[in-house]
Amino acid sequence: MTRSDLIDFCLTFPAAYEDYPFDDIDNPGAWTVMRHRANQKSFALIYERNDRLCVNLKCDPLEAVFLRQAFADVTPAYHMNKVHWNTVVVGGDVPEGEIKGMIENSYALIKPKVRKRK
After folding, report:
1. What domains are defined for the chain?
2. Predicted structure pTM score
């Protein structure tokens, strides 16, 4: 998976958009932040660290611990809350399908909740 593949997959979710709040879009080392348009919450932060493509993803705390134990390339998130966020090294021991599932879960955790009217 490439950076473009990650961005394209994230953009398949309703109201998702890409943002570059820390760097210029033309900067090759820029952090790409994938957000939900309704609440501007981020669900994936894509960046390169030590010449490896990484993505920070929101996660349920218990699942976060499980994933860190299951995969060497899943660690507590770089520059994020270590309880609720994981860093995944792309191209490591985490299969592409598993990464996509983690992205879906991250999106589900941040999307606005629909309130039922009485």
Report:
1. 3-110 (3.90.1150.30)
2. 0.91
